[in-house]
Amino acid sequence: MSALDPHPDEVTCAAGPAVAVEVLGPREVPLGGPRAMTVRRTLPSRQRSLIGAWCFVDHYGPDDLDMVMPPHPHTGLQTVSWLFTGEIEHRDSAGHHAFVRPGEVNLMTAGRGISHSEISTAASTTLHGAQLWVALPEHARHGEPGFVHHAPDPVRGDGLEARVFLGSLLGVTSPVETATPLLGAELLLAPGTAVALDVDAGFEHGVLLDTGTVRVAGHDAATHDLVYVPPGSARLDLVAGDEPVRLLLLGGPPFGEAVVMWWNFVGRTHDEVVAFRAAWQAQVHGGADGSTYADGHFGIPVGDDRAPVPAPELPHVRLRERR
């Protein structure tokens, strides 16, 4: 998914000491033009920029709408697509053509640069899911683009059903490789269910609540909240309220690198992001050397002839870098 905000915020992300559990409420962000869809964004927020390497959390639906995300670029990150309802067709410039379906994860690695498009299928009348980004560390962020699809088997217990799509939880390890240690799982809890999850004490964790209410590490969260839990405990306590609960559990060790995010680019400096934007604009509009869209650094999504999305204007200040 693209961050199609017409005036995207500059976001400087820097790991810092965690001191307490935080309950982060969402803010509504419209994506796109006349057919815009509205998402609930909880990361980045004013209080927190990253949870492990997770740097972006958009939560949307259930909505009766079409998703139309024309070709757009990414650098320095991985996109993690997870649906609860609906179906989305994915095409990217590394040659991958796939579908996002409920209970199946699509992980796209942008690396040095990729373009992709996403469109809901004709059979999909309701969309409901989450779009997540992972910042790539220095050693991986200039690598080749790639794509992985995985359909995890459910793990069931007393009042609990889980699908582990990244990392390890409940004795299950996802085969999907990541550049930094990560945890990503969908959990379904029956009303009143209490679970104590064995987790990595070195991880930060985020609990994104899709439905119901839940108590996370002793803190109450409502539907659409994201609860941040700092490192330090090898156990994560969850207690469901009076209704069925569905949530996403995200985690990873503190990232430890400063990250500048703007539009669809993750970089390290102002100048780097400016260069990413210039490369995409040259691809969209044609370069001074006579190059065309097909010749550009980010490539063209396979089988998609729709016009690409131009980058918005940069702010009239230098993008800040904080370490």
UniProtKB/TrEMBL annotation:
Gene3D superfamilies: Jelly Rolls (2.60.120.10). Residues 304-323 are annotated as: Disordered. Pfam families: Pirin (PF02678), Pirin_C (PF05726). Residues 38-134 form the Pirin N-terminal domain. Residues 186-282 form the Pirin C-terminal domain. It comes from the Bacteria. SUPFAM superfamilies: RmlC-like cupins. InterPro entries: Pirin (IPR012093), Pirin_C_dom (IPR008778), Pirin_N_dom (IPR003829), RmlC-like_jellyroll (IPR014710), RmlC_Cupin_sf (IPR011051). Belongs to the pirin family. This is Pirin family protein. It comes from Nocardioides plantarum.
